[in-house]
């Protein structure tokens, strides 16, 4: 009995030990699997998220290439020619001016950074007296139009007593000088007679921030063709007064070509100019943060639509 009891106890001990050993083996066998499964899962999830992010970036950028990025400094105009649209045929032809060679160009050597900073301060001074309730405000030195709330006022009339504290004679001189240089660069690039190009309206400073639009005037981001929108435009130029990715995010200028988008990243003193027809459909990306300043300086070939340089009233 005793032997049997001992034997029974021994059997029970043995089987529990065997079980433990087996469990140990199973645990040892399964341990590497468990050790690797969590990191492996994380790698798989990470890869999956990576693919999703890549797909989203590719999709949202929609084939977007930088024509000129902020980091580059162009000492010569970078010129891209494109076929002229038929838009100009609907208007009177002015030999030596009406676009026959169309395209776009960007240069950093026409306006200095210091000049652009002075021009930016003109816009800042005037716009802090008014400004749109929405994200886009303008100041037109020619007509005097200044965004104010949901409307516009005439800065020369509205602030008539203070106007000589807002602007100086030198401000207007610099504006004229810069306009002349841009006109020359356009004429050289497109093979035009500079004197056959005239300043036209609207020509204006713009200030854009990320505040949501309150009226349609604030909706600057829509694709458009300047010749269709403004009629008299034959050549559009843009002078940038702030830096993309430093002073503001978003806000890149986008040429919308049939199969791709090409961006110009604003940089203080950078001038971009292009023929105004539908060969240069474009839009401005929404500004995500910060404040973007620019000047739209427009030119026509039709002397009937010419305007004089701005001056004190
Ligand atoms: O500010 C810009 O970059 C472009 C503005 C524009 O498209 C325009 O004034 O017609
Ligand atoms: Fe435009």
TrEMBL record:
Keywords: Dioxygenase, Iron, Membrane, Metal-binding, Oxidoreductase, Transmembrane, Transmembrane helix
SMART domains attached to this UniProt entry: P4Hc
Coiled coil: none
Molecular functions (GO terms): dioxygenase activity; iron ion binding; L-ascorbic acid binding; oxidoreductase activity, acting on paired donors, with incorporation or reduction of molecular oxygen
Essential cofactor(s): L-ascorbate
Gene3D superfamilies listed in its UniProt record: q2cbj1_9rhob like domain
GO CC annotations on file: membrane
Keyword rRNA processing: no
Domain called Fe2OG dioxygenase: residue spans: 201-302
Entry's transmembrane regions: 36-56
Superkingdom as given in the UniProt entry: Eukaryota
PANTHER family documented for this protein: 2-OXOGLUTARATE AND IRON-DEPENDENT OXYGENASE DOMAIN-CONTAINING PROTEIN 3 (PTHR14650:SF1), PROLYL HYDROXYLASE-RELATED (PTHR14650)
Protein name from the UniProt record: Fe2OG dioxygenase domain-containing protein
Organism from which the protein derives: Silurus meridionalis
């Amino acid at each position: 009995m005793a032997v049997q009891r001992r034997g029974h106890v021994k059997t029970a001990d043995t089987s529990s030990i065997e079980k433990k050993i087996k469990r140990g083996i199973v645990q040892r066998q399964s341990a590497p699997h468990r050790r690797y499964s969590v990191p492996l899962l994380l790698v798989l999830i990470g890869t999956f998220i990576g693919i999703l992010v890549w797909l989203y970036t590719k999709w949202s950028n929609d084939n977007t290439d930088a024509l000129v990025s902020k980091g580059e400094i162009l000492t010569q105009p970078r010129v891209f020619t494109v076929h002229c649209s038929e838009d100009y045929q609907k208007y009177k032809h002015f030999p030596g001016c009406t676009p026959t060679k169309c395209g776009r160009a960007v240069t950093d050597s026409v306006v200095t950074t210091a000049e652009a900073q002075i021009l930016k301060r003109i816009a800042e001074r005037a716009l802090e007296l008014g400004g749109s309730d929405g994200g886009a405000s303008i100041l037109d030195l020619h007509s005097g139009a200044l965004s104010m709330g949901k409307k516009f006022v005439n800065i020369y009339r509205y602030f008539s007593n203070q106007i000589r504290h807002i602007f100086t004679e030198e401000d207007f001189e610099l504006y004229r000088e810069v306009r002349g240089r841009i006109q020359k660069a356009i004429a050289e690039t497109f093979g035009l007679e500079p004197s056959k190009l005239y300043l036209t309206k609207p020509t204006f400073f713009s200030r854009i921030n990320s505040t949501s639009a309150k009226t349609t005037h604030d909706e600057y981001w829509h694709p458009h063709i300047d010749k269709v929108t403004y009629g008299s435009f034959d050549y559009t130029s843009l002078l940038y007064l702030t830096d993309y990715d430093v002073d503001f995010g978003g806000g890149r200028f986008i040429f919308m070509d049939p199969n791709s988008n090409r961006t110009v990243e604003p940089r203080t003193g950078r001038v971009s100019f292009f023929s105004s027809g539908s060969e240069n459909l474009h839009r401005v990306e929404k500004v995500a943060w910060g404040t973007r300043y620019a000047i739209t300086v427009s030119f026509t070939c039709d002397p009937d639509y010419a305007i004089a340089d701005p001056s004190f009233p």
